[in-house]
Amino acid sequence: MKTFLKCLIVISFAMIAASTYSQVLDTGPRDGIYDKTAILQMNPIPYVPLREADVIWSRRIWREINMKEKMNQPFYFPEAPQGTWKSFMQIVLDNMKEGTITAYEDDKFILPRNYNEIMKQSEKTIKKTLLREGTDVEYDTTYTESFQPTAVTKLKIKEQWVFDRQRSVLEVRILGICPVKESYTDQGEYRGDIDMFWIYFPECRNIFSKVEQFNLKNGDAGRLSYDDVFMKRMFASFIYKEENVYDRKISDYATGVDALLEADRAKTSLHEFEMSLWEY
């Protein structure tokens, strides 16, 4: 009887050890010294309810974020996904493919677009002249290159500034984001930027709040989500359009230094309006 009990105990310990070993193999080694779970439990802070009767001033602004600028580089990198760390464009495309983010034709957010259609239109046809192997004979070849998220180097933002008299607050809320890709000729010459699609920001906040962006100041311990970055305005940008009766961009009536001065004037007018609210 004692021998039977001993055998039963040994078998039980062996089964527990095997189960533990199996779990370790399933989860794999941890890349770090602690488990990062806080970012996955985060939810976006809901907007404060806003009544039309309380809005006594409003203005729409369109901005452009250049991801090549140092402050904006966390939007662009990494060029290839590294585990859960992905670029902003890669996050948007992955969620569009899954159907959790909807793409729209323009910043009116009326006509939705299909993910496969966008990827097909974003393919690039490349023509090259090559040499046949072992000969000096040249031949032309054409092939299609699939769209890469690294082609997106800019983001456009549509936002609305409002003054809420109920709370005596001037605040801004982002309405939409548009990825902008660079366009080149067959000879590799830059020929301008192309707006790909628009996404409705309030619809995406729950997704962005659970995705971490690289923190330039605090590194891996930052716990800074993309929703935090947009809500706290932690990016560099310039105004390329403000709401006007002609519905035109700054580039439509000003160029060069004049365009920069006009963009700066639009930014300054927002701050001056806020400061003038508290004059006595």
What does this structure look like?
30% of the residues lie in helices and 31% in strands. It is α+β, with helices and mostly antiparallel strands and 280 residues long. The protein has one domain (58-276). Strands 1, 2, 3, 6, 7, 8, 9 and 12 form an eight-stranded antiparallel sheet that branches.
Outline the fold blueprint.
Blueprint: H1 2-27, E1 55-66, H2 73-76, H3 88-98, E2 103-104, E3 112-113, H4 115-121, E4 124-131, E5 138-145, E6 152-164, E7 169-184, E8 190-195, E9 198-200, H5 201-208, E10 212-215, E11 219-225, H6 226-231, E12 238-242, H7 256-276
Antiparallel strand pairs: 1-6, 1-12, 2-3, 2-9, 4-5, 6-7, 7-8, 7-9, 10-11
Write out key terms for the chains shown.
single chain; 280 residues; alpha+beta; eight-stranded antiparallel beta sheet; two-stranded antiparallel sheet; 12 strands; 30% helix; 31% strand; globular
Apparent shape: globular
Q: What is the tally of helical segments? A: 7
How many domains, in number, for the residues?
1
Structural class: alpha+beta
Portion in helices: 25-40%
Radius of gyration: 26 Å
> How large a portion of the residues is in β-strands, by DSSP E?
25-35%
In short:
This protein is 30% helix and 31% strand.
